[in-house]
Amino acid sequence: YDEMVEALTSAGFKYNNPEHILISCGDLLDRGDKTIEVLKYINGLPLDRKILVRGNHEDLLEECLSRKEFYQHDLQNGTLKTVMHLCGHNERWCFENEYHECFAEAKNNKLLQDYLACLRDYAEVGKYIFVHGWIPPKSRNKSWRLGNWHKARWVNGMREWACGLKIRGKTIVCGHFHTSWGHYYLNHNGSEWDRRTAIFSIFEDKGIIALDAATAFSHRVNCLVIDGENHNAK
Question: What is the C-alpha to C-alpha distance for residues 166 and 210, in angstroms, rounded to an integer?
């Protein structure tokens, strides 16, 4: 939450300015310690001032709440922590006999329900297409818009772009995968994970803008500012 608000403020986003629209590429949940604050901030924006793309962590949370059981990856990905926050537990763990009640309380949390109701697979704004991982490939002469978005949310968009999965005349803005990957493997700058040399700033090239700064690791959030009149990025 703190990193998100700091980044938006630095980028010039005014929470009460009706001309400012917030677009999220997903994964607003998990790993952080202020789940409720994030949801209140996002839900507090009117529907016409936010575009929320679904991330794989939103999928992970809903899957966990549906199965009513924690798996190992729920601990690793921070999903368990999110569930605890949603059901009012400050501690990471609750007793086993409290799990069922906790799952029900988290699933029925009004903040979470309102947030999930606003999510979409992708958003097209002018020459930009906002996604989480990347667009699905075409299959059986079907448009990418009709592809498997659940699977697409898990892929490395920078790798897909480098392999030629692009849309002519459009720029795809993605999250999900840490931008240090693109800086290191595609631009040969810095390293992928070394804290001293890894580059987590925006990765940008023709047809792609990747945003994910691996916030839990780097403690930064990348913001892209797009002029609403001319749709020019800064």
Answer: 13
Give residue-wise pLDDT tens across range 169-223: 999 999 999 999 999 999 999 999 999 999 999 999 999 999 999 999 999 999 9
H/E element, 50: strand 50-53
pTM (2 d.p.): 0.93
Residues 6 or more apart whose Cβ sits within 8 Å of residue 43:
111, 114, 115
CA distance 234 to 170: 16
| Cα end-to-end span (Å), the chain | 23
Instruction: Give the C-alpha separation, 159 to 154, whole Å.
Output: 12
Provide the pairing of β-strand 171-174 with 203-205. Answer: unpaired
Q: Which run of H or of E encompasses 210?
A: strand 208-210
The CA distance from 147 to 129, in Å, is 15
Q: What is the rounded distance in angstroms from the CA atom of residue 192 to the CA atom of residue 186?
A: 11
| 3-class SS of residue 62 | helix
User: What angle do the packed helices 56-67 and 99-107 form, to 10 degrees?
Assistant: 130
d(CA 209, CA 8): 17
